[in-house]
């Protein structure tokens, strides 16, 4: 106990448990994630996690919350483009790759079984908020909510189909990489968004 | 046995079991779906299902296959419009409503855990094929595969977010119905698809 206190203080144990839990999740799925295994991975006694988590569900919720934060950071990082449509594409690619690289976490965050935190209302602090802000700069106000919802649905659907192995095989040739497919799909969507500013029409039309 | 033979012949028992299984699935989720319960529901002995299904997984696969057929029929039925973009919207709405009305079946068809049949390659016999055919009539050839994939991702993502309760609450006012939301989201997407025939640009631009 005193060793644990020395190694983990000021919330460090909580962080260490969540970090360990994330690794367990990716290695063995949600079944592998127990408070006991997290304790072992963090090098503390089996009882130590109970200081921070009442049960496995509480740990899962914390893990999902960390996942939302990671996804938000990833979208924010991807969104560093000067061109607004390109920024939207990069966000979409980042979303799909997040799911592709961390499928168990993605399922935990968005799957049905968990009583995880719902996607929070749009604010700059959430992944949805980062997407909404980018869309808001692109489309007329009347279509912003619909366009944000559509953009989210698009990448979420592609992510789910990818993670669950439900993509149809390509009509010919090799299947594109996940990144290439995500880039094409989000590129087509972004090009088709109604442009802000009236009669300029859609992005791609303008570009022709 | 002789009663069963009288009641079910020429594959009728198989159909009855799948029909019963579909009802069990919607009532109690995949856990409620056992060969024993299906037998009870169909009014046959507990051993009778084994004539058609080796185990629960085989029954689940048959149920999912029936789900794909139902989804295909629903998309085909929805796609009866003279306006091609409107037909695409109706297909999308039908897809989302299918998931909304039959969430357990939808999860079985597209969720990860089941070793269910994958979405088959595009052919007129599949839901994907019906979508692909409609998209093919709308967009230039070079963009068809991407546009079909994008359309599928869009409605699949909206369906998943709906079924899993992950839709963000509306910024203001009441949440739209599932149908209204699906109509808006697919409408925005369809309007933004690149139009076939060169420089006419995108659908909505043309309409302005």
Topology, pairings included?
The structure is a homodimer of 208-residue chains.
Chain A: H1 2-7, H2 12-28, H3 35-42, H4 56-78, H5 84-101, H6 103-110, H7 127-136, H8 144-163, H9 178-192, H10 203-207
Helix pairs in contact in A: 2-3, 2-4, 4-5, 4-6, 4-7, 5-6, 5-8, 5-9, 7-8, 8-9
GO molecular function (chains A, B): DNA-binding transcription factor activity; transcription cis-regulatory region binding
Pfam families (chains A, B): TetR_C_33 (PF13305), TetR_N (PF00440)
Keywords (chains A, B): DNA-binding, Transcription, Transcription regulation
Give an account of the 3D structure.
Two copies of one chain form a homodimer. Chain A folds into two domains: 1-53, Arc Repressor Mutant, subunit A; 67-207, Tetracycline Repressor, domain 2, CATH 1.10.357. Residues 203-208 of chain A have low confidence and may be disordered. Chain A is built from ten helices and no strands. Chain A has helices at 2-7, 12-28, 35-42, 56-78, 84-101, 103-110, 127-136, 144-163, 178-192, 203-207. The longest helix of chain A is centred in the N-terminal third of the chain and has 23 residues, at 56-78. With 208 residues, chain A is mainly α. At the A-B interface, helix 8 and helix 9 of A face helix 8 and helix 9 of B. Chains A, B: Residues 11-71 form the HTH tetR-type domain. Chains A, B: GO terms for molecular function: DNA-binding transcription factor activity; transcription cis-regulatory region binding. Chains A, B: It comes from Nitrospirillum iridis.
């Amino acid at each position: 106990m005193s060793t644990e206190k020395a190694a983990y203080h000021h919330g460090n144990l909580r962080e260490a448990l969540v970090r360990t839990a994330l690794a367990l999740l990716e290695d063995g799925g949600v079944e592998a994630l127990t408070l006991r295994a997290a304790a072992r991975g963090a090098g503390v006694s089996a009882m130590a996690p109970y200081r921070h988590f009442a049960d496995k569900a509480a740990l899962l919720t914390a893990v999902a919350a960390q996942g939302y934060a990671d996804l938000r950071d990833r979208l924010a990082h991807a969104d560093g483009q000067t061109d607004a449509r390109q920024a939207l594409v990069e966000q979409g690619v980042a979303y799909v790759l997040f799911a592709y690289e961390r499928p168990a976490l993605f399922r935990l965050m968005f799957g049905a079984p968990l009583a995880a935190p719902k996607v929070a209302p749009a604010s700059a602090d959430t992944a949805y908020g980062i997407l909404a802000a980018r869309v808001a700069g692109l489309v007329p106000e009347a279509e912003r909510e619909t366009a944000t919802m559509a953009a989210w649905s698009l990448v979420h659907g592609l992510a789910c189909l990818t993670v669950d192995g439900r993509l149809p095989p390509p009509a010919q040739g090799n299947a594109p990489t996940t990144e290439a497919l995500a880039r094409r799909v989000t590129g087509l969507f972004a090009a088709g968004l109604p442009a802000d500013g009236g009669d300029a029409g859609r992005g791609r039309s303008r570009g022709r």
